[in-house]
């Protein structure tokens, strides 16, 4: 896309700074102009598609909740993309497809919650590209604080409101329209273009993993999360330890002898030893070189939930603390998981407990829930350059960045042989909020950038 944004430079000149400019000789500049015009004319259609997506209730669910309208949404998108010329596969994964992964809670199934992939076949001779987005959204409560119905899109002052407008039905609408517009314009890419929508991103990433295990892959991927038009090349991984400390019950209104003489021990007070240790571990990580990443925050461990005590007149018999722990790609083990971070946390907790005579004899236990692994893509990967050029041509010169949280790009990069980046409208900073919205201008810009990125990355058949 660089050629068109360099006013006055003769196209395809031998002195062009790199091969990308040479690829964008005059026919492709024409392609770029046609895409821009079609996307601009498609502004209304973009808001219609996003409004339809918001109208399907695809609120993230607890493990055993029934399905919502995931299947209807996937059929809606599949129908559109089929009509645009794609071959469409909508399938309900088998629970066994994702079982056994450290990432997936035991017992997770997909009944009534299918995944969808649409393939626009390329002419051959070029790399393939995957667009991916998740269709699940977080719960909209507290509903009474919303200005308009979260499940009914409302456009006010150039912004489209509704649950998922930002995270990430907005990005899904953009990638679908981008693919449809390329097809309608008759722009035949060299490589295949895949459009893939998945469930369960907001909880475990099971939908993305199911897609990978189903064989959804491409030479590279773009996940259209709300990146504020940054190009994300990395994300952190997540672990969730629950640390439990035992006390010894006794009458809370009575003076107690020393615990060695049989007296009660307050589990909540003993948990303060662990809370101090967690705080010190956080400080230690902040200054450590292996916790530094150019595009990500340092590793973090944040206490998020605590519970202890059984009765108002009893010494608490137990206290549990759950933490949300984020770790960097550099801290992953040889297989890419968080086992070494888990071991470090356990050593740290044990060292703190060793300073407390009660805890020495009654050591805390640490239980680990799912492990959502971190990921990164080489910033020199061609898809990064394509996305940067395309975004610049669409009017938003991007910076490279990373997501301190986690998203499905990690699954495709790590397990799907599809190095994947993030790029999309609005900012993750405004995800999961009351009155969530996306500026319609952002949708138009993103759709144009995605279509241009596909052209740049996959190449156009003569
Ligand atoms: Zn998201």
Cofactors and ligands = zinc ion
Rg from Cα: 25 Å
Strand content: 15-25%
Major sheet strand order: 1-2-6-3-7-15
Count of discrete alpha- or pi-helical segments spanning 4 or more residues: 13
Biggest beta-sheet profile? 6 strands, mixed
Which outline best applies? Answer: elongated
Mean pLDDT value: 93
Structural class: alpha/beta
Structure summarized in a few sentences:
By secondary structure, the chain is of the alpha/beta class. It has helices at residues 2-5, 19-23, 26-41, 43-55, 70-83, 169-184, 206-213, 267-286, 339-353, 357-361, 382-393, 409-415, 440-458; strands at 87-91, 115-120, 129-134, 154-156, 159-161, 193-198, 220-223, 231-235, 237-246, 300-308, 318-327, 365-372, 375-376, 400-403, 420-422, 437-439.
Protein architecture, described:
Helices cover 33% and strands 19% of the residues. The strands form four sheets. It has a six-stranded mixed β-sheet, with helices on both faces. The protein is elongated, with a radius of gyration of 25 Å. It has 462 residues and is α/β, with parallel strands linked by helices. α6 packs across α13. A hairpin with a 2-residue loop joins β4 (154-156) and β5 (159-161). The protein contains 13 helices and 16 strands. It has helices at 2-5, 19-23, 26-41, 43-55, 70-83, 169-184, 206-213, 267-286, 339-353, 357-361, 382-393, 409-415, 440-458; strands at 87-91, 115-120, 129-134, 154-156, 159-161, 193-198, 220-223, 231-235, 237-246, 300-308, 318-327, 365-372, 375-376, 400-403, 420-422, 437-439. Zinc ion (ZN) binds at residues 134, 167-168, 201, 225, 407.
């Amino acid at each position: 896309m660089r050629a068109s944004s360099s006013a006055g430079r003769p196209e395809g000149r031998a002195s062009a700074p790199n091969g990308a400019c040479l690829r964008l000789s005059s026919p492709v500049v024409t392609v770029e102009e046609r895409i821009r015009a079609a996307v601009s004319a498609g502004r209304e259609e973009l808001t219609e598609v996003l409004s339809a997506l918001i109208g399907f209730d695809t609120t993230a669910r607890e493990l055993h909740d029934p399905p919502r309208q995931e299947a209807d949404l996937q059929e809606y998108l599949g129908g559109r993309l089929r009509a645009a010329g794609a071959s469409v596969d909508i399938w309900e994964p088998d629970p066994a497809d994702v079982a056994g992964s450290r990432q997936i809670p035991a017992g997770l199934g997909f009944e009534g919650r299918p995944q969808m992939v649409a393939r626009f076949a390329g002419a051959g001779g070029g790399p393939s590209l995957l667009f991916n987005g998740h269709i699940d959204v977080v719960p909209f409560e507290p509903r009474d604080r919303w200005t308009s119905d979260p499940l009914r899109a409302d456009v006010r002052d150039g912004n489209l409101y509704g649950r998922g407008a930002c995270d990430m039905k907005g990005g899904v609408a953009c990638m679908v329209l981008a693919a449809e517009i390329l097809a309608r314009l008759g722009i035949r890419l060299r490589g295949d273009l895949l459009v893939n929508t998945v469930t369960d991103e907001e909880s475990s990433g099971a939908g993305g993993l199911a897609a990978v295990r189903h064989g959804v892959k491409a030479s590279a991927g773009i996940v259209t999360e709300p990146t504020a038009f940054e190009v994300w090349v990395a994300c952190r991984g997540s672990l969730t330890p629950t640390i439990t400390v035992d006390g010894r019950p006794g009458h809370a209104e009575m003076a107690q002898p020393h615990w060695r003489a049989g007296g009660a021990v307050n589990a909540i007070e003993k948990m303060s030893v662990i809370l101090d240790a967690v705080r010190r571990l956080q400080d230690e990580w902040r200054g450590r070189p292996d916790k530094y990443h150019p595009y990500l925050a340092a590793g973090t461990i944040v206490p998020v939930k605590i519970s202890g005590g059984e009765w108002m007149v009893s010494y608490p018999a137990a206290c549990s603390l759950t933490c949300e722990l984020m770790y960097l790609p550099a801290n992953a083990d040889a297989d890419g998981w968080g086992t070494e971070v888990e071991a470090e946390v356990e050593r740290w907790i044990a060292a703190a407990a060793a300073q407390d005579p009660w805890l020495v004899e009654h050591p805390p236990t640490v239980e680990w829930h799912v492990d959502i692994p971190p990921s990164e893509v080489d910033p020199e990967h061609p898809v990064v350059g394509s996305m940067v050029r395309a975004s610049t041509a669409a009017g938003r010169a991007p910076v490279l960045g990373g997501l301190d949280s986690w998203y499905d790009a990690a699954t495709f990069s790590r397990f799907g042989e599809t190095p994947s980046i993030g790029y999309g409208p609005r900012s993750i900073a405004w995800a999961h909020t009351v009155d969530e919205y996306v500026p319609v201008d952002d949708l138009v810009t993103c759709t144009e950038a995605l279509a241009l990125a596909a052209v740049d990355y996959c190449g156009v058949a003569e």
